[in-house]
Amino acid sequence: MLPDDEGPCLVSLGLNTHLTQCLLLLAAWGVVGIAGLVRPLSLVLVGRVLFPLGAMCGAALTVVAAVSLGQPAEQTILPIGLPDLPMHLRLDALSAYFLVLLGATSCGISIFAAGYFRRGEGTAPGLLCLQYHLFLASMGFVLLANDAYAFMVAWETMAVSSYFLVTTQHRIPEIRKAGFLYLLIAHVGAISILLSFGILQGGSWQFTFDAMRAAHLKPDWAAGAFCLALIGFGAKAGLVPLHVWLPEAHPAAPSPVSALMSGVMLKTALYGMIRVSFDLLGTPTWWWGLIPLSLGLFSALYGVVFAAVQTDMKRLLAYSSIENVGILFTGLGLAIVFAGVDMQAAAALTLIAVMYHAMNHAFMKSLLFLGTGAVLHATGERNLGHLGGLIHRMPWVAWLTLIGVLAIAGLPPLNGFVSEWLLLQSFLVAYRVPHTFINMLLPLGAALLALAAALAGYVMVKFFGVIFLGQPRESSLQQAHDAGLAERLGLSWLALGCVLLGLLPTQVIGVLSVITRQLHVGELPPGDAPWWLLVPIPARESSYAPLVFLAVMVALVVLAIFSVRIFYHQRVRRGPAWDCGFGALTSRMQDTAEGFGQPIRHLFQPLFDIVRELPSPFDRTPRYRLEIGDRFWRVLYQPLGGLVRRVADSVAWLQQGRISTYLLYSFVTLVVLLALML
Amino acid sequence: MNAYDWLVQVTGLVLPVAAAPVLMGWVNQCRAWLQNRSAPSVLQPYRQIRKLFHKDAVIATNASPLFRLAPYIVFGTLATAAAVIPSISTRLPFTRAADAIALVGLLATARLFLALAAMDVGTAFGTLGARREMMIGFLAEPALLVVIFVVSLTTATTALPMIVERLSAQSFALYPSLAFTAVAFTMLLLAENARIPIDNPATHLELTMIHEAMLLEYSARHLALMEWAAALKLFNYACIGFAVFIPWGIATSYAPGGVVLSIVLLVAKLLVAGLALALIETVSAKVRVFRAPEFLATAFLFAVLGLLVRLLLGA
What we know:
The structure holds two protein chains of two kinds. Chain A has helices at 18-35, 43-68, 93-116, 125-144, 148-166, 173-200, 209-214, 219-237, 246-252, 255-280, 290-308, 313-340, 344-379, 390-393, 395-408, 415-428, 438-468, 485-503, 505-518, 546-567, 593-603, 631-651, 659-677, and strands at residues 9-10, 74-82, 85-91, 572-575, 608-613, 625-630. Chain A is globular and about 100 Å long. Chain A is mainly α. The longest helix of chain A is centred in the middle third of the chain and has 36 residues, at 344-379. By secondary structure, chain B is mainly α. Chain B has one domain (3-313). Chain B has helices at residues 3-34, 44-54, 65-84, 100-120, 124-155, 160-169, 176-192, 211-215, 220-245, 256-283, 292-313; one strand spanning 57-60. The longest helix of chain B is centred in the first third of the chain and has 32 residues, at 3-34. Chain B is globular. The two termini of chain B are 34 Å apart. Classes of the chains: A mainly alpha, B mainly alpha. Chains A and B meet through helix 16, helix 17, helix 20, strand 4 and helix 21 of A and strand 1, helix 3, helix 4, helix 5 and helix 11 of B.
């Protein structure tokens, strides 16, 4: 299908190349953004015209990138930038796939955003529109960049534009603080990526990715480059212990932005990691994979355990993102191990599972974040303790969110299940890795992964049950209204994505195997299964057919409904809830979000930093306070911050505040330099 | 794939659905015998279900459509699960659509809808039951998956019919890994089916109940379906156990006699398993709800131990 041994063709910037079309669409996002500045205060312009236009660009980008997936890689040089440093761009299957992810997800999010932004959101709508579309375009450029310079420029633009989006409501001190933390860790990561590129060029001092592919690094240097890239991209993805910014920044941002950050931006970090480990470094060494594997497993469990005890719905989702990033990096590590020991089919399967999960998570997490956005608008509440019963007031949002909830809980036949299924399948062949102990430890990863997936189900029952089911916990919730048309459309688009990605796995995997082939990772063994049946490794005979599965399940449910109707009656009486006859049921008697998380808090107590104030029996005004903090703050970040402060203080005596001292410094420096030179 | 296969498949679906209540009745009867009580008929669960179907359903005013839909979904999912499990034959066409991992997913789907429906009316008991059910689920589900991993490492597949065929082709030997996982699986079966050390299907005491707490707001046909689904779940778990630990006798060929024989053997296995279940329930005391995670963590660790033993010893 793909002539992959031919080198990528260097294309001129004709309109007929996919790369040019992609560039034009990214530029169109930029133009849409700038157009927002024409009338920065006009919600009509921004909401009715610009965001829908942005969504159309996203849809077009999806189509163009999807078409280019089967084609050989294209690359070009764009004569902009610093003198002698033009931008190298390249569109290969890996970039194209992540561009599809970006385009398809952002299309839904932009449609939603068209109806979402209102007055009083802090930043003026026009400015917000500019930041939003710059963010989108910069993510696209990250995926297309083919040299370190273009990559870093796009990467930093992405970080800065998203920083401004996070601090949309900059009048609130907590949000400014969250934004600062985000920017800080983003830059620590960027430095690490930059250093990694510095090693990757391998003495050629050419910072194009082509030069890095050609460079032959010594094993130690290659390992160093890999670790630096892992720190850099891990910081962006929210890998524990570099995750602390994520639960602060994601909830602070407006919901469409949270959706973009969680759904798409975290995936650019995964893209970078795949690019470095499988493309720029050539074939990775197997033991490198153990680092992302163990960090990923830890992140997955850590994230989901923290998600279970959250009381803020967006924070809960942010922690769930950490879990999913953990799953992605676990899979990436496993793929590296497989590739390193030359188990090509297994490596291809694992990498496919990872990229599949990236797409799935983009859809389901965006859906859930947008769902919380709709709830936030309707009620003004983010705290789970003040929500409840919204399925009656907001049926559209509730039912569409339910699809996302079922998907992210990893239930068949939705999309979350397929990628987890594939990942478990690849864990089950890990016992063949030819290294003793490692081959015994690897299948245990599957056990931990299963634990994380099951906990995700717990978290999602809590999320959906507390927000949408039960009785409203505040009387003001009675005035809540369902989402508007644009918001419903955006949510439906993402929900549809979740369903389709779940039902057509064979097709998605067919597309993904183009990427593994182009990256020379390996290929899935050929099989003769029909199009509706997924058999990843024919020799193992494990198969899954979601369409048949769904058809049988629906048929049985419908059969149950109709046979009850036909053979019995349909009489229903409505009455007050029975509740064992206790009567006088108030909404305060329901389980709170804290209560629902209690078993997890109890079971995983050592992970948490718990501050609890219990009322004594003699209190006139009893007060109960519970704060659950992240241990990493105390163990890692506060000592680190203290160290930085001490170093800064000890350097500070240089700053005397007298101009004569400063002149003395200059004089001494000059003398020293002269002495050295002469 | 031919008409005969489909006939066996339909039998494999209808038989568990139809016979699930009688298994419940049998367990109740054995328990009554062991506890020196006079036993109700084994057909009592059918009478109960029939009675409930004829009653008028009373639904809380603030119940959402999810609440009314959930019994059908739970029932339908568990029936689908019954179709996937090779209980009488391994020549089941539908099992290609779902392997052992998908089966665990199906059971999880049923649990999730049950828990969501319990939270829907917003009573104290419902949410309490949902929380406890999910607390059991989040440890039981991975433990069940690990049990399946152990078997799948032995048989190099996750397709259930293949697992049964390859296991029953082996000569009978006591595999240490399977012994560990069998202990884990028994513990799971007790916890997942609201049985005694974890839950007691016979009480309605708010300090202890889990499964019943979730069903409190249901009545009439919805309750009947939920009760039936619970019986079906027990039947499914028993059949998973048979398929994995005592697969001998499950028909692997086309011969119609084999299927008849395997049905007879299935009945015999169920009779013994029901008696064993009643015995376990009679001799053990219910643990406090706070201890339930410990019980399940033990099950999970047993399963992981089985996995390690399997990887270390290769047996």
